[in-house]
Prior knowledge:
The structure holds three protein chains of three kinds. By secondary structure, chain A is mainly alpha-helical. Chain A has five helices and two strands; from the N terminus they run αααββαα.
Amino acid sequence: xxxxxxxxxxxxxxxxxxxxxxxxxLGALAPGDVVPSVRELATSLRxxxxxxxxxxxxxxxxxxxxxxxxxxxxxxxxxxQMKKTQRNETLRDxxxxxxxxxxxxxxxxxxxxxxxETAFEKLTRxxxxxx
Amino acid sequence: xxxxxxIARRELREKTHLFGAAAALAVLPFLATLLPISRSWGSGxxxxxxxxxxxxxxxxxxxxxLGASTIGRDLSDGRLSFYFSKPVSPxxxxxxxxxxxxxxxxxxxxxxxxxxxxxxxxxxxxAWSDDAFGFFFGSLSAALALFFVSHVISTMVRSRSALxxxxxxxxxxxxxxxxxxxxxxxxxFAMGLxxxxxxxxxxxxLLIFMVAPVRQLSDGRADLRRNHAALSRIVWPxxxxxxxxxxxxxxxxxxxxxxxxxxWYARTAPAGDWLxxxxxxxxxxxxxxxxxxxxxxxxxxxxxxxPFWGATxxxxxxxxxYLKPIDMMxxxxxxxELKVVDLAGTDVxxxxxGITATPGSFALSDDGSRVAVxxxxxxxxxxLATKRSLAAVRFGLVRGDLALFFVTPQIVRVLxxxxxxxxxxxxxxxxxxxxxxxxxxxxxxxALAGSNGWLRVTxxxxxxxxxxxxxxxxxIIVDGRTCAELQRIPNAMxxxxxxxxxxxxxxxxxxxxxxxxxxxxxxxxxxxxxxVQSAYVSRETADGKVLVNGRLGPNxxxxxxxxxxxxxxxxxxxxxxxxxxxxxxxxxxxxxxxVTAYDGDGxxxxxxxTTNAKRVLxxx
Amino acid sequence: MNPEAxxxxxxxxxxxxxARTAVDSVSLDVPRGAVYALLGxxxxxxxxxxxxxxGQLKPSSGHVEIFGRDIWNERTSLMDRIGVxxxxxxxxxxxxxxxxxxxxxSIYSRWQxxxxxxxxxxxxxxxxxxxxxLSKGQKKQVMLALAxxxxxxxxxxxxxxxxxxxxxxxxxxxxxxxxxxxxxxxVLITTHDLAAVEAIADRVGIxxxxxxxxxxxxETLKSRFRRIRFASQALALNNGALVAASVxxxxxxxxxxxxxxxxxxxxxxxxxATNLTSADVAPMSLEEIFIAVxxxx
Lengths: 131, 620, 297
């Protein structure tokens, strides 16, 4: 699973949303898989169930999750690729934040790009191992 | 309801150890029979005595402990929130907890008492009370009362707030107020009513203590100080209401006017329009009030003294004197103070004199300016205006009766009917105190044949009538100063002197009929009606008539107006009875047409004998 | 009852003890299903406020409503739906755990014995034990099990983590979160342990000297607070229209500022205006925000 950090600037519901997306994109959750219930996720992450519900609601709205009445929440069969524009926007947001941080600590572009590459490889490797 | 029971059950379970402790103590009375003293007492008495004492002690101790802890400890430990964070009402908390405490007190008492009662049986009754229920009820009531009192005190003390000082102050004020409230009743000798009032106030306060904790908890909830504040806020106003109600009741009782009297007595002044009257007021718990009433105007003045405890008037009727005990709670030891009322003044009210006296041992001078008082072993004359002692002589102890009057402002005559040593019978002794010379001299002496009787003296003191037997017999007229015999009146059922010094008597003839005999210029014999069973000569009218009170049976009465000159009854007034004369004054009344009498309905009336006009003075 | 109406409404209450004001004109709403974390140091007026909320203390002015009903006047009936975990366990120490449960069972209309038994088993507490024999953490767990077994609509946790170790703290919150997920209860937590409630608080209030100095959604609160560090003397933050909650020296010649209205644009503007080349901008935890707002203990 993923961790929630209170020290992060981004709200918890967004951390959950991103965590879920990451798990799907990395294959930890496959299409048709049962998503942990709000209760399970909230207790295991020790976050407010309302927050989890909010993240799930957004993911459902975006077509990432589907809700089957009486059965629970599942990863959508065709885990909707984010619309290209939407995806670009998300990436740009994150890139801006990262670049800002890099500039703030006085890192060069090369340093920043190197760190990004290492992080990318590390996450991919971890998820592959878990899967 | 459910919550109340749950709380009570919980409370009982928490205190089950008290049952164990009581059970352990219950063994003690039986162990006590092993003591050597038990052999002389008898083991039954031993068990009963120790058992009874122990049971009461246990109940009282449990009551105090529970009262101080059942709410108080939860409050000081901050644990009353255990209840207040639950859906239980303050009433449920109090009733549950107090109910459990009551049950614990009763049960622990019974655990100790019942086995000893069963074993000791009848001995138990002898050792304590024939009324075993009364014993139970009395000790348990005291224990239960103590529980509620203990709770209130503990709540106040535990909070340790400054309010405690105020509570203490209010408690003292309440006690002081109670004393002040009850005092008028005690001063009026209404001891029974005072006792009932004290009990009623105590019960009311106890009821307040029983109910107030509900308010305490509902306003103060889990906070100790607010509990205290809430309790004080409800207790003291409630106590104040009780005290105000008692004060109002006492004020009402004490405000009884002559018309409120239902049973009463009256003593008329020798001259003038005033009389001293008092009696039991209607619907006031046996409370008796005394008044000075003006028969002509109906004006009345309340006296602060107890009902008829010695009163007299000056011969001119312008001054009244009566006694008020100095300490009502301990009147027999404290003695009484002489109070005077100037009836001639515009402001008729009692005045203190600072002179102490005892009933029947004081007399006013004819003009009311002086008073003679026989106290302990002294005889003293005071000037009332200056309160100064004019003369005081040693008189010695009087074992019998005493009467005194002013012959002149300078001479006080004292009559003593004293028992002689060695059972030698009674002797009447006459003394005179010379105020100017401050000397006391015995002027006469007379051996008395009977052991009771009465004295009547002419207004100037020249002649004295001595009757030695209340039931009738011989009466003697003697010289008022020397006791030299002047005349004997045989067979007198009643005899008195008239203002001119001649005698009038009621005699019973051999055939059983009653006659009035007078011994004036001409002796007369007036037969009284056959239905008159007994009669006595009351007084004289200004026009020379003699008024006779006749008794017709248990309730009937009639006043016979006799003209001695004509030797016949000139008029009869059915139902009337003429009021008596102060027994402090042994001199005969001054002839008057206006008298005070009881009418056929039992009311006190001012009665003009010649015109037959009547005016109600007291009773309704 | 309007579902949008707050479950708990504190309406301008003040609590005074003589001349001392413990709670000064505090107003706050807790919506249905929300978790409100009320932060305050000892002496901030927290316990007076809690007692006011529980209807155990009559406020000197103002009032508290739960489900639209005045708690002081209707405490008896309202408490049937309010679970309370007090700061200190107020259960009579001699009582056995099972007896406490029996007592609750006889009083609460919606008592669930099985829920209680299960939790007690999960907490590994022997119901035959007396309250005084339990550790502080176990007492808290019993209190929580009791509070949740009454099927509460509102749960009040008064400094629930005080004196608990990490494990007990975790299990306590797991239970609360589970109950929230299952039954949608509304929760009011008072605490000074912010890390524990960080992830579950919807809304945060900070009580300081009896006044509610802050009352905000946790998310917006966290989004607007940043700690900025740069290696130079204090610079005018208002060049970027940033508001500093606190500014202090950091290291040698450096500055640390807590900004209460952070956004990227304003920060860029500040940076450009002050020619600041290097600055460390860090998000803050609730605890850090609390310290910045309420000051060090």
